[in-house]
Amino acid sequence: MWLDNASEVDILFYEPYANVIADISKNPSYKPLTIGVFGVWGAGKSTLLKLIEQKIDVDSEKKRKTLCININAWTFEGYEDAKIALMEALLREIKEHKDIPSKVKDGVSKLLKKLDFFKLATKAASVGAPMIASVATGNPIPLLLSVSGKAEEVSDGIKNVANAMQSIRDDYLKDEESDDTNSIVNNVRKFRKEFKETLKDDGIENVVVLIDDLDRCQPDRIIETLEAIKLFLSVEKMTFIIAADENVIQYAIRKKYPPIENYSVNLDKEYIEKIIQLPIYIPELSSKDIENYLMLLVVQEYCNIDQFKKFLKKIKEEKLLISNDVIDVQKIKTIAIDYINKNDKQEFEETADIIAGIKRIIAGNLKGNPRQAKRFLNTYTTKKKLAELYFGTGEDALDTRVLAKLLVLQKLDGDLFILLNEWNKKFTTENEDFKAMLESIESGDSENEKYKAWNVPTIINWVESEPKDLEKIRLDRYFYLTRESLKKADVDVSTLSSAVKDILERIGKATRGLIPQIVQDMTKLSAIDQSMVFEVIIPKIQKGEIEFYIIRSLFVGFEAYRDKICNALESYSKKITIKSASAIKEMRSADKMKVDNLIATWEKAGLIEQKLIETIKEGK
Prior knowledge:
This protein has 28 helices and five strands. The chain is mainly α. It has a five-stranded parallel beta sheet, with helices on both faces. Helix 9 crosses helix 10 and helix 11 packs antiparallel against helix 14.
């Protein structure tokens, strides 16, 4: 199995990036500095951070003057104040570092005590607000609703909150040179100044803070973390390296600071530029890169970590990854065979051949994403092991090539995967529906509605991949292994881009007046993002959860998805009413044949009255 976490082995060959970022972070003339390592979900940002940490640690072992601290932003998700949580985590990591000078440790201890006042202030404000409101207004209700315990304890609670607030003001927040209205400003200034003074010791040259998983946090937490870095912690000797999906950061900024009407400045972009001085973008892997990556993962599965590192070194020495061509499977096997565990060599060669046969098709569907590549291989190996347990490894064993090919179809198009299962249920001497589909594609009949979804380049490539004669194979046992996928699962929201989430949220709140602009903005999305929007919307249309004025706009605006919209509406269970007539009429104007077929299905199911059909068709 391939673990879905940061790898200690540079299988993505990010070492050049790690070297550049580590060198920049150690340069004292660039301090303070915040570097953004930007890439989509699963691009390998955590792996790159680990490589950077390794580079910095090697240097710090020599000089012992560079502190490298790793912080996971997601761990602050449950905290009331992410700013304070981040500051406290950083200070404690500095204090506990093995190479920290004693003078710095003492300074950090004082700052930690002052952070306690911050936390107390936050708590006192949240608890004390209803108490103070009750006392000020003479209304006991907020007080009674917010304070538990005996009556005499209530007055003590008010005193304690008041005393705590006064203590905070006297011990830290109050500044002699300013009035009360500027206390927060002074608070920030004082903390920055004391933090800067604490790090002045000659025993420290650099403090490099690696922040991962920021894009997993809620929008408010993302903003709080960025503001803590900018307002409190960005001082001399400090470098922050933040790994995140830039789209998620922009989404969080737009949620916190919505666009201002008649104001042309792009606030989310401006905000990021204020926080991040040096953005570094991890490039999306090409299809060629993904094909190579899949084969390298196969090798990794069959050798130990030391042997795998030697194999990768050989790959680098022969400069195979920077070649214009995909690495030939025979070349991979020739180099790898010396590093594979002796008992696994035969299985390795068989697996390498199987993955080599499908890697070109699946690579185009993985969107340049290393994590998706790992997940596909994990699915394949899990199903392969299940097949061995269910059906053995003898004459009755499943053909792993067929299994791999079916899993590729499941990845390419879940609807066609389910349809193939339905066709297989009618298998007699052969799968007649599948055979008819093959004949339709071979004849070039691209207009045949029944097989139109199969007549696209990615699916045709799948059909033509080995083994080719699926129509001659009864697939019951293969589908038994994948039976959890034969009912459409809900979309994994965590895999959606921020742009898709934004569009879906707007559709959920859409009125008739807003939907045209939403559809127009949808047309600007990438083809992949548009596909993800419809993957969420189509099941909701089928369940009757989407208004017809929204369906109309999507139907008219996106011709490529009209078949899927109509298929969803064929399963519609609600009665079609006069309220929907104008929307259906517009859909019919856009595609008369499809909508007339849809109306006929509704009429047969008793979902639409004849008078309403006449209204739609005759334009009444």
